[in-house]
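re: ur question from earlier - yeah i can do the single chain one, its not a big deal. heres the input i used so u can compare w yours
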Amino acid sequence: MDGSVVHLKTEGKGQFDTEGRLVRITGMTQAITAEAEAEAARETAQARLRVAMDGAGFGIYELDLAQGTAWFDARAARVLGGLVPAESLRTVGDAAWRALLAAVHPQAQAAFAQSWRAIQDGSRQDASLEFRIGRDGDFAWIWCHGTVLDRDMANGRPGRLVGIVQDVTERHRLEAERRQGQKLQVLGQLAAGIAHDMNNTLQVIA
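and the output i got, formated as tokens:
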């Protein structure tokens, strides 16, 4: 042996005499190292993906468009302001779903509805959208992306949509502060220029 670990799967069956005593065991052993290593690699990849998703603040959702159901993980539910229950299979169009749609900012309603129709009628494979949603008495900026994974081969209609949501409110706030800072800088430069011109004018008058 070279010291490597070998995974085995063993199945056996006992034979007993008339008095119930075990007299023989027959069975077979199968090497399943490749399968075990593949499963371990899959679990490692899933763990790494979860760490990356958590670090980026991504929440996961899944819509079964054929069955008309929706599922959101805990982070996605938090990002969406708790309007949809976490880790619970819901019906698309139920009270929670209607509350979520109603919370979308009026200025984003048209774009949101257009993206949703394009996914449903099969004209788009994926969609990304940034929109504001009512949350905690204010509006939060949400980035949402979804990709169709299953499609009906007969009519081309999507079967399952899987995607992520992220709270990008802080990014929008920082961008607004940067734009405000740039405006103030321009105004400061303009004011300085005006003051300089006035000073030159006053010197000429004097």
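The chain is about 45% helix and 30% strand. not sure if urs matches, ping me
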